[in-house]
Amino acid sequence: GAFQTGSCWPASVALDVWGWSLSCCSDQVTMSQPCKELVLGSAVGELEEAAVGLPAHSKRGASSVGELEIREVIVDEKPFQCGVCEKAFKRAWELFSHEVVHNEERPFRCDLCQASFKRHSDFKSHRLVHTEERPFRCELCGKRFKRSSNLQEHRRIHSGERPFRCPRCAKSFKTPYELQRHALTHCAEKPFKCADCGKDFPTSNALLLHQRQHCDDKPHVCGVCGKKFTYGHSLKVHERVHTGDRPFVCPLCGKGFKQSNALSSHERVHTGERPFVCKTCGKAFKQSSYLVIHERAHTGERPYKCEVCGKAFARWSSRLAHHQRSHTGERPYKCPECPKAFKGSSALLYHQRGHTGERPYACPQCGKAFKRSSLLQTHQRVHTGLRAFECAQCGLTFKWASHYQYHLRQHTGERPYRCPACPKAFKNSSSLRRHRHTHTGERPHACPVCGKAFAQATNLRQHQRVHTGERPYACPQCGKTFTHSSNLLLHRMPHNPRPPSLASPSYPCVA
């Protein structure tokens, strides 16, 4: 039956949890199974993670969990074995936590919304959703928190304190989670492989955390859109999409972020630090995750596959998740200024900059500003001339991975983007998008001056030059300017049938 979650248990309780005998006394907890015994001085935090809720009076005999002494009587190296899949563990609480995956029982039930949970810790985190009480207040900015630990982490934003130092490179971090993530960058060896997807991890704990993603158990549900999450922290971050809350503020420029690691990454904009370097082309990145994704451009690895159409992607969040909405038609991110809706939160953010005119990413060489950091990075290759992507078949080099991938299809003849309305197929997604307008008649790009609408954004930009008088294409020989690059090419075309390139100065002007 379901556990009692609101009442106090008697001083001595005996439970049978998945074949284990567990006894609670005033000063210790004893779990036993034939040939295996573990005696704990009330290691309640670990037991709670294993879905066992203990009363407060079972913790007598130790002033804090940090002082509790754990003694294990170990028969072999991994004496605790799962009866379902035979996986073995060093510690009993690891087995308890693992066995929740196989057990369908959800003994911890919320009396306010009827949500049920396998773990007591998940139940406790969920209860905070129903209460608006935030008793912990920051004395500097007035922001309130539900947990004292969250307030302590928040205070470090004001103080700049980074108490968690890496023993290998002397870098320091605001939270232990940031330090843990950073420590993985020093691990060249990744001996722990996920049996479900084949991904490798440097530690068994990292693997265990990852494996929860493959589990169907997602107890944390968003009250606004119903999206489910494996971890309470993931739900908390997601809820900021709806609330707009950006609690992590840069002390230098005041920009706010939804996650602490996003703030840490942003701070490198001010310092210029790019500690993660690609061994193939030497490109450096602010985050290790960016480096991992970038390296797939060299290897061609696309580990994330769409179950509907089989298309594979190099990254999960912004690629596969976005693509899957093309099958469902879901557009959950709505613009508050106009009726437009978007498949991803980043697409909404970029769209909103069209209303505000904000271009926060400026080129340090020429001052040109962009709406997205990726557009700035692409632009900067104009100045550096870096061509990191080389074709193994013909030796051509490319500045951008997308151009490299497109070029490879010239050799293979592959046309992976197929029109659902006719038999036509295309080498890139943008060509397919343009083609589909011929079926729908849609002209989504309207001129704000005269109202004329166009099927493609490039056609709108060219049209707007009629109103602005802009003529960006100049002949390097005579200085004559043009609104379209094609007109410049015609102007410079000699009687030679071979057309010139825009950069070539070797052709005479044609009057």
UniProtKB/TrEMBL annotation:
GO terms for cellular component: nucleus. The keyword Ribosomal protein does not apply. InterPro entries: GLI_C2H2-zinc-finger, Znf_C2H2_sf, Znf_C2H2_type. Its main location: nucleus. The keyword Transcription applies. GO terms for molecular function: DNA-binding transcription factor activity, RNA polymerase II-specific; RNA polymerase II cis-regulatory region sequence-specific DNA binding; zinc ion binding. Keywords: DNA-binding, Metal-binding, Nucleus, Repeat, Transcription, Transcription regulation, Zinc, Zinc-finger. It is found in: Nucleus. GO terms for biological process: positive regulation of transcription by RNA polymerase II. Residues 80-107, 108-135, 136-163, 164-191, 192-219, 220-247, 248-275, 276-303, 304-332, 333-360, 361-388, 389-416, 417-444, 445-472, 473-500 form the C2H2-type domain. Belongs to the krueppel C2H2-type zinc-finger protein family. This is Zinc finger protein 628. It comes from Otus sunia.
